[in-house]
Amino acid sequence: MAQLLSWSCRTLLLLPLIGICFTKFTRDGVRSEIHIFHHSCALKKDEGPCKALKDRFYFDTDTGRCESFEYGGCQGNENNFETLQECEKMCLVKEDKSPCQLDDEPGPCRGLVPRYFFDFKSQECKRFFYGGCFGNANNFKTIKECHERCLPALNNMERNAPLKPEEVEAKPKTEPLAKHVEAPLNASHLPMQRMSKPSAKKPRLNRPKLCFSPIDRGNCEGSEERYMYNPRTKRCQMFHYSGCGGNKNNFVKRSDCMKMCMRGVFTADIAYFRVFDIIIEKNPAV
Fold it and tell me: What is the pTM of this model?
């Protein structure tokens, strides 16, 4: 029996200000999320305004496959590939494709579903809020799933031991290395390690000042969809930007707003070591 795949965005009557997207992948009456590897694959087919007829491929969220279409030759969007292979490489989720270098992506819907993603820069699994539809493959329901997919070495060492907060936070102490050390090949893929003793203070969430700036449409005549952080509701909400002026509480993507203002910047008195980078944060009082 053919798989029926569709999605829709609806606004709940009891929550008129919150639009929540529901994904529906129906097979024998069972629903699950629609999975795509990269968030651009959720964009609708866009032939563009020009009149050329170029054979291209796009990912169709209704069929779950890469389909052919005729591209006009200009503009359009990122869901546009010259070959079927390029489309499938970018959009299909497969076991042999690692999602661990992708950014966290909440997707176009407006839910607040707790999920985990792998932060490639810090080599850690972190929590984020998933909108409820699409996004990308760097999206895990539990921190254990994230570890198993993106930190196989850690998973092998601790396969039989439950993860505890202190085990995730505390790293082995290491002595500072000499100034001149030859880095091994692929050293940029090594996880960060703590050096010296970890701080007893808990990290604190500091939102940048720009997140508290009031909504400002600017003083031009345009109308562009942008996002701003509302400190009263503690959410990133859409507004229409005129195209010039305004303030820095203005983001092109909702995910950028969430990264800057909903997650904020965690500060702690810790020192990190990585083969190619040394990042040190010290407590001025020490």
Answer: 0.39
